[in-house]
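Comment thread on ticket #2218

A.B. wrote:
> Attaching the input chain for the structure job we discussed in standup.
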Amino acid sequence: MIRTTLLACALSASPLFAQDDLLGLLGEEETGPVYTNASFKTTRVINGHSLENTAHGVLDFKISHRFGLLNQGIKNFYGLDEAEMRIGLDYGLTDRLMIGIGRSGYQKTVDGFAKYKILKQCDSGCEMPITLAVVAGTSIATLQQQDLPWYRPDITDYFTHRISHSMQVIIGRKFNESITLQLNPGVVHRNLVAGTDDPNDVIHISGAGRIKLTKRVAINAEYFYVLPGQLDDVYKNSLSMGFDIETGGHVFQLHFTNSTGMFERAFITETQGTWGDGAIRYGFNISRVFTLHNPKKKPD
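C.D. wrote:
> Ran it. Output below, let me know if you need it in another format.
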């Protein structure tokens, strides 16, 4: 009788109680697995995808900059006098499936992707030790043909030549509150390449990690290793390192990278900078999320 009276008083005093609060008053708890979250602070490590997804109904607005080369010195204000930019929108169709689209100044490129979580690491309620996701992307360069690095005057400029595709698998684990590691091997397919002997498909074995320093600050790093013999010697492996800073609904990512472009074909197959020569760029990503749809909690 006392228990029923207390519940009635709680309902009348605050009609905004969530379902979880009511279950707590009744001494009941929701059943089901508790999945690991916050492995990374956002869906990108730096250039590449992290194992995180945008939540169901949430829109993630991203602005990314990559400035000029540090080794250009004071004459170019250590690269700050120039910049490449990408603006993107990512949306969570479900808690497992997200899609995104972006526009880059680099080669005036439009890119899009879809990412799906096949497996989700559990904290309790199941025994899944890892997160497994797949990412498929496409990019289309709209720059004039003669300004593209794969320009070949002997070939007609077909629209399909401007298209590239990428596919990667992300296998990751959050080991504790501080450390997350992931492997993300994949392939980039280029419809047109500069040389007749250059492969259209470029295979890479890559990885990334995070070390959490405080509740709101973390160190991130990523490395994209392209298997030998696939690219000209002028192209280098992409290496990026930096800090994530979370402030309310924003995540600021401040980093250094030897890559200019911010989509897969660009930073995996067209990176030319070398860290040892100071051919690196300061850059940042800004992520701001908006809840457009708040679905009722459903069994996963």
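A.B. wrote:
> Thanks. Noting for the ticket: The mean pLDDT is 87.
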